[in-house]
Amino acid sequence: MKEFLAKLYALNIGKVRENEPMSNHTTIKIGGPADIFVEPSKPENLQKIMELINEYDIKWRAIGRGSNLLVSDNGIEGVVIKLGSGLDQLEINENEVKVGGGYSLVSLATSISRKGLSGLEFAGGIPGSVGGAVYMNAGAHGSDISKILTKALILFNDGKLEWLTNEEMEFSYRTSILQSKRPGIVVEAVFKLQPGDRETIIAEIQKNKDYRKVTQPWNYPCAGSIFRNPLPNYAGKLVEEAGLKGYSIGGAKISEMHGNFIVNAGNATASDVLKLIDYIKKTIDTQYGIKMETEVEIIGRK
């Protein structure tokens, strides 16, 4: 590992830190240290990092803005690559938008609304990066990323870059090919949008932002929706009907605003959250015979 680190520093590819607390990089403010934390300063540096990782056969994990993520108290083995300000390029050509994986999804929705482009209104208020949104096919209000993505530039485990079309991304409900079959990093995404009335688009985005403020507990550290909706049921409604709102284990608490949110009510650990997730699963299964599946991604050492 010392030799790997020496070469990594020598590449001068951006920020490099050792034993970086992941609680500083997740929206729920939980997570032990990453062995090595890297934030590349430009897109081409991503490939250099991946080539070095492959040379030394080291485990890696990419993150965006840290939403929809629960990191183990024991941290993450290997390298964590954060897509941040070095990968937030934006290019708008008529109704086509090419954007870096590190760009804020909310900021993108706001920026293109001012250009009178429609298609991302659903993203108003969704935290996270463009890369993360493509990775998990983020959505709300009856739409999602799969409705607007034309193609995505992916950096794969072998260090090769490849453009995948919408079809090749194999999108489904909150998933894509990148989550299982072909792990990779979303370097860039191309979206096709539609021209529309600027004021109407801006108003729709603001309405969606306001809806989140009054229905979801973003005044507390949280990871977003914990469970996938077991359609035709809704996770939050099931939790509420089971009488679980406000239930807590340690510092982790089921939000009283929305049943599908677990908040860090004060010094919560990943262990607290996992115990609470397990309790919810068992309760919903017992009361309704429904198996709940997590939407939040749980990563790190056991």
What does this protein structure show overall?
The chain has 302 residues and is α+β, with helices and mostly antiparallel strands. It is built from seven helices and 18 strands. It has helices at residues 2-11, 43-56, 105-113, 130-136, 198-215, 235-241, 270-288; strands at residues 14-21, 33-40, 60-63, 69-71, 76-82, 90-93, 96-100, 117-118, 139-140, 143-144, 149-156, 161-165, 184-192, 194-195, 248-249, 252-254, 262-264, 297-299. The strands form six sheets. A five-stranded antiparallel sheet has the order 6-7-13-11-12. A hairpin with a 7-residue loop joins β16 (252-254) and β17 (262-264). α1 (2-11) packs antiparallel against α2 (43-56). The longest helix is centred in the last third of the chain and has 19 residues, at 270-288.
Strand-residue fraction? 25-35%
The helical percent reads: 25-40%
Q: What is the overall number of helices?
A: 7
Q: Order of strands side by side in the largest beta sheet?
A: 6-7-13-11-12
Give the overall form. globular
Structural class: alpha+beta
Q: Which residues form runs of ≥5 with pLDDT under 50?
A: none
> Termini distance?
21 Å
Spatial extent as radius of gyration: 19 Å
Element-by-element helix/strand order: HEEHEEEEEHEHEEEEEEHHEEEHE
Q: Could you tell me the mean pLDDT? A: 95
Largest sheet: 5 strands, antiparallel
Number-wise, the strands total: 18
